[in-house]
Design brief:
Largest sheet: 6 strands, mixed
Structural class: alpha/beta
Distance between the termini: 27 Å
Strand content: 15-25%
Helix content: 25-40%
Order of helices and strands: EEEEEHEEEHEHEEEEEHHHEHEH
Oligomer: single chain
Length: 344
């Protein structure tokens, strides 16, 4: 089978088992250098629609194979799909080649169970342990935002920096945290989830005018989470709230760049609402860089404007850019899995 190389990165040597249960409330994955870093790892990025598959020969580098439909409601169907991908791409590799998975949902380091996922087949399952048993090989799994952050910290725009915060601005809002090259995984798999919590303002004053801001119910069960207004769909909700008309996030950003007044108001409000909790995250964690993934990371000028707003709201002054678009903004799941799978 043929592959496309989607990234080339460093050959970081990393160790410790993510798939094993961890009893601590907060775990920082530790590393040991060793020959395992040179062995191949199968990588999968699993979302609500597709399974993307690839093979990694070095951490931070993935040869992409293909993507197949994800049978979201069927665990047996999922296992068959993964077995098929390994059969098609795995003939040249040892039978014990491990599989590393980036997945939607929170992966608990205490139990291995998947929570808050949009994939019903995974709900309540210890994904890595159950799949490892059925495939007869080691399997590790982590949240896709965590994997994106790992990718950036090991082979991307934050490579080698001590504290890296990953921020996803896609359909919704997510995040991850890497310290000294190691993934931090909190209780229940919750770390860096800055988009959740009742934190959205009820009003904003922009250029002398005060605007009411809706506090919407969130899928997590709370009301007023940034996740409801901070991603691409949230930007569209803000625009509809202010102007009583529907526009896509791309149209809104394009109008803002042209100086269109309605779009300018929406983006000004969006920047304030997103930058304030992000500045709080900076004051708590002190990251060296914040790397942004997801669809909005590629919106021209938007991340630069967000960076300016965030740096104006933090205690320590950053002379250089702090908030930047990630190198792996659109393929960080697979690249991060290539790092994750080398945790021995």
């Amino acid at each position: 089978m043929s592959f496309d190389v989607i990234s080339s990165g460093n050959n970081a040597e990393i160790g410790t088992d993510v798939g094993a249960g961890v009893n601590a409330e907060m775990s920082v994955e530790t590393s040991t250098a060793g020959s395992a870093s040179a062995a191949a790892v199968f990588c999968a990025d699993i979302g609500g629609s597709f399974i993307k598959f690839g093979v990694s020969r070095h951490a931070g580098e993935v040869e992409e194979g293909e993507k197949v439909p994800m049978p979201t409601a069927s665990w047996p169907g999922f296992v068959v799909a993964v077995q098929g991908l390994i059969a098609r791409y795995g003939n040249a590799f040892p039978p014990d080649t491990p599989l590393a998975i980036a997945t939607a949902g929170l992966v608990s380091p205490q139990t291995g169970e998947l929570l808050s996922t949009n994939i019903p087949a995974f709900t309540g399952r210890a994904l890595a342990a159950e799949l490892s048993w059925q495939l007869g090989r080691r399997v590790t799994a982590a949240n896709d935002a965590d994997c994106f952050t790992l990718a950036e910290a090991h082979a991307g725009h934050a490579q080698g920096l001590p504290i890296v915060a990953g921020v996803i601005l896609g359909t919704g809002v997510g995040g991850g945290l890497v310290i000294n090259g190691q993934l931090v995984r909190g209780h229940g798999g919750v770390t860096g989830e800055w988009g959740h919590g009742a934190i959205v303002r009820t009003e904003l004053t922009l250029e002398g005018h005060t605007y009411a801001i809706p506090r919407r119910p969130c899928a997590c069960g709370q009301t007023g989470c940034l996740d409801t207004l901070g991603g691409a769909r949230g930007m569209e909700r803000l625009h509809r709230h202010f102007h009583r008309r529907d526009s896509t996030s791309r149209q809104i950003v394009a109008g803002w760049r042209r100086g269109q007044p309605e779009a300018a108001l929406t983006i000004a409000a969006w920047l304030r609402l997103v930058a304030e909790p992000l500045a709080l995250l900076v004051n708590i964690l002190g990251p060296s860089k914040i790397v942004v993934g997801g669809g909005l990371a590629s919106a021209d000028g938007l991340i630069a404007a967000l960076d300016k707003r965030v740096r104006a709201g933090v205690l320590h002054r950053y002379p250089d850019l702090l908030v930047i678009a990630g190198k792996f903004a659109h393929n960080g799941g697979l690249v991060g899995a290539s790092v994750l799978g080398r945790l021995a």
